[in-house]
Fold this sequence. Notes:
Mitochondrial carrier fold
Amino acid sequence: MTMASEVFSYESLVHAVSGAVGSVTAMTVFFPIDTARLRLQVDENRKAKSTPAILAEIIKEEGLLAPYRGWFPVICSLCCSNFIYFYCFHCLKASWQKGNQSTPRTDLITGIAAGIVNVLVTTPLWVVNTRLKLQGSNFRNADIRPTNYSGILDAFVQIIRDEGVGALWNGTFPSLLLVLNPAIQFMIYEGLKRQLRKGVPRELSSLEVFLIGAVAKAVATSGTYPLQTIQSVLRFGQYNMSTEKSKLLSGVRAVKCLLLNRARRYGMLGLFKGLEAKLLQTVLTAALMFLLYEKIASCTFRAMGLSSNHYKKR
Length: 314
């Protein structure tokens, strides 16, 4: 009963809804920067420029609203993804913590476990939103095949019909490796939060939450960026996967080949093409997301009559 009450607790639901709302709001604000990052990752022939220069090119060639192309499917995917991640992270943390203060090690393990669940459930959504976001773009690479999806459901139907159900999980292997990204992010975030409180249960200021959220995401993103690039390429579906019967072996070979090819053609710096745009977008988005998440959660818990005791547990 105790385990069931922790998994299906109102507290985990509050964390999940707060995280989902915070992430959706933050992504909407900084969405154009993510558009610039994605173009640099998948279009190998596009020259690496500053984020404002890339956005100016996109607007000039494709129109004023082009930086927000694919916003709706991305927001749907992000909302589902963060709801699942925050819910799993906090219910697993409550189950393993059992009233004790968490440690960096438990935060990391919990983050990895929550990330694996999240990847396996939401990868099809991310594959579809990557395709929709890039549809109609002016690519410098002539080898990229155009797509014609009328919406989320049509994209699902066409991908399953033309490429098979397995194509919806393209990029799953690098995504599973990339569970380290949010795991490291949450480990650093929770660790810095504990350091700032120094054993005293208090609500952090908005500036403190924003800064530690930014630092946590910057460290996590910088360390895992080459894999994020490969993940985007595989989700876009323009890379010819090997016909191995084993999906795991096929995924490993695809990641290895793409990493080696990029490094060979563009040098080690080629693995970090678009990092400036990614850091700008992801650090600001994560910082704002954590700020909104903490504020929404604290207001909800305060309305529930939880104050100092709740902060001791967190």
